[in-house]
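Section 3.1 - Work completed
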Amino acid sequence: MGKVRVKTFGLPEEEEKEKKKTKEKKEAKKMAKGAHGGERVVAVGPNEEEIEKVLETKPTEEGKEEPSFAKTASSTAMATKAESKGKKEKFIKKRVRSKRYQTSVQVLDKSKIYPLSEALELLSKFQKAKFDETVELHLNTVGTGVSGTVTLPHGTGKTTKIAIASDELIEEIEGGKINFDILVATPDMMPKLAKVAKILGPRGLMPNPKNGTITLNPESLIKKFEAGQISFKNEAKTPIIHLTVGKFSFGDKKLKENIDTIIEAIKPENIQKAVLKSTMSPAIKINI
């Protein structure tokens, strides 16, 4: 006969319960059919747990409510920014001066331009290092293109290694071996030196007629360098000349004679500013 459906009349509560049970059975069958019939069940929209997380709020500076997901994004952005700042600080470190420098700078008036004799006296008052410091002269010239040679009456106090260009030396340079401070060459060696110009040029070691390192008699030139001859030249793009004028142990008199000789060779009218210092000391502005 088949199934007989019995419906009860006159009992509204029982009828509602029956409808609800029937509806639940149909929904259960649909879910079962989707799970076993190859249908994909997809949950659309956030679940209750996700909704509760989104509704978690904190007050912002303006008194508004900020969702927790915004808080997470803000925290991530701040962490990324802090990490980036930390990386930059690794490369940009504040220069920390030594106690020796800080003690020395207390006796120096940075706004004053000192006569050379006073500057040398002041240099001797600075706290000294444990080694014989090199005395340096730094000049700002009126323009670029200032170059030449000069022989210091007392030398620089530094042992200078001088080499003469040869085929064997060129091979050593190509192999990365450079064991000299000055390279002199005869004119016939210059074409051969062209292939190592990219190595010597940036180091300021390429022989050049302007600094007197190209000569027909290199042995005679070496004697001049050993006697205290130095070359001076502006930096490639800036009107600055850096020179070694001796050792602190020379004393004021010898240092002054060396500096006077350099200034005479470069000519005072070519000099805008001059600074004197030793290896570890503050810089002293001097009047030329």
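Second construct:
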Amino acid sequence: MNYAIAIDIGGSNTRVALVSENYEIIKREQFKTDINSPEKTIQEIKRIIENFNTKAQGIGLSCPGPLDLLNGAILVTTNLNEPWYNYPISKALKEATGLEVYLENDANLATLAESVIGQGKDYRYVQFLTVSTGLGSGLVIDKKIYIGAHGFAHEIAHLPVWRNGPSHGMIKPGGIEAISSGTAIEERARKAGLDVKHAGEVNDLALKGNAIAMEIMEDAKEYLANTIAIIYSFIDPEIVILGGSVALKIEGFVEDVERRVKTKVFDPLIPYVKVVKTDLNEDSGLLGGACLVFFKESK
């Protein structure tokens, strides 16, 4: 049996898993990411891998983007602080563990997992979007991640869909992440005076008829649907899969977005619009990391 190490470094937590070639998660550990020290985070990862006490083929590493995929480095991210910027994460992790490291952004790895063992396994052109703390996207064609000429394909967080629209953090005004992500939904609601802790509470208020909450949720769905309609126009995917806490936990969100997309695309495309919810839940990034290792090592 062959094994891979899958790592998902997030702004809150880092998850490390031992995954079999059958895509079963055999062991896993999670710890709080040190947002100010990549070195401390790597040392904790090394400790966990050593405790797994199992020979692995390599490491599939998921980090929030944008990333320098050609050189294995983190460029900049809203979820981690400056010591992580331009950090050569692949080289540092390889030196610490002795294993080959394959870096990808979290959305790309989630897309790969969807195309291999998830909702997209029977399709050639698989599009995935995560609607959670941030908003990420990935495209897999024939089980291969499409990264573009410089590794920045589908870095859509800044995609300008709303002139002079809202912004948050590093997201430029009108960028889709500043409208449809869970963080954006919550932030817009709080700035408008609503006492909420997360996007689900904004949606609850909208269902109760709160006009401000209704407008915020309407914007989140409408502009996300616009974005997906644009993707259909350019990419013509066979399936669009939505993951992340907003898509998974807000009842009817995915179905409503699909309905809206069908009203926006060119009429001949309507029968081919298929927007569904992931069935891999929060493990898609880890499983995608394992997919990447097994695919790379088999060549």
